[in-house]
Amino acid sequence: MFRTMPKYPMWINFLVIENSVQEVIMSSSRKTIGIVLPSSNTTLERDFQLVGPANVDISYHSGRMMLVTGELDKLNAMNDDIEMASRQVGTAKVGVIAYGCTGGSFLNGPGWDKELLRMITEASGGIPSVATSSAMVEVLKNHGIKKVSVATPYKDPVNASLRAFLEGYDFDVLNVAGRQLTVNTEIGSEQPNDIVEFALNNFNDEADAMFLSCTNWRALEAVARVEKQLKKPVFTSNQVTIWAALRTIGVNEPIHGFGSLLEEIRIPVAA
Prior knowledge:
Blueprint: H1 10-28, E1 31-38, H2 44-51, E2 58-65, H3 72-78, H4 82-90, E3 97-99, H5 102-106, H6 112-123, E4 129-131, H7 132-142, E5 147-152, H8 156-168, E6 172-178, H9 184-189, H10 192-202, E7 209-212, H11 223-230, E8 234-236, H12 237-248, H13 260-263
Parallel strand pairs: 1-2, 1-3, 3-4, 5-6, 5-7, 7-8
C-alpha cells in the first residue's frame, strides 16, 4: 500500500519538525526568576524581559510591596511586605528571587542587605535570593572600584542614606547627584535621554566608575551611551540586579547593548 505524499514540500516538513523539537527542548529547560518589587515600579520587569537572552527560555513571576513615594519612612514601611511577597513568589518554585528596590535594600545601612536576603530565602522556603544593593556592592568590588560617582532620581535624605551604605562598604563616594524626585511613577516616566544628560553632567572625573541608582529609573536604556562617553565603567540598579539573578540560575551568555557588565561572561554561582 502506497503512503500518501506530504501536502507540503519536504523542506517545509523538516523545518516544522526541527522547530517542534526546539520548542520541546526550550520548554523542558525553562528557567524561572521571581521578582519582589515596589507596587509602583513600572521599569524593572520590562528590563528583565528586554535583556533576557533570546536563546534562553526564562519566565518571570512577581510579588509586589506597597509603595507610592520613595521617602525613607515609606521605604521602611514597604519592607513590611517583604515576607508576604516572597512567600507568594516562592509558591511558583522559581530558581531565584530578586529583590528589586535599591533604596529598600540600602536604607538601614551595611548588613541590612544581607539580612533582607535571609528574610526572603526563609520566607520563600529556601529559594536563593539576590538584592539590588548587594549586587551593586559585589559588582563594584569585583571590578576593583574604589572611587565612585553616583547619580540618582532621589531626594537628598535618600541620597545621604545611599552614600552612608556605600561608605560602610569602604567605597570612596565622590558625589551623589539626585534629581529630587519622590513620586515613583514620576521616576519611571523619566526618559533615557534625560538620564544620559544628567549622568554626564554630574560625573566626577576622578571616579573609577559611575553608578546610576533606582530600579524604576530607565537607566539601563541609557548606560551604554553614558559608558561610551565617559570611557569608564557605568553600572545601573537594574543591570546589576539582572546580572546577579541570571548568574544565580546559570545563564552565562554575554548580552550586548546594555553596558559592559552584561557583555562579560559570567561565572555561575555554585549550587
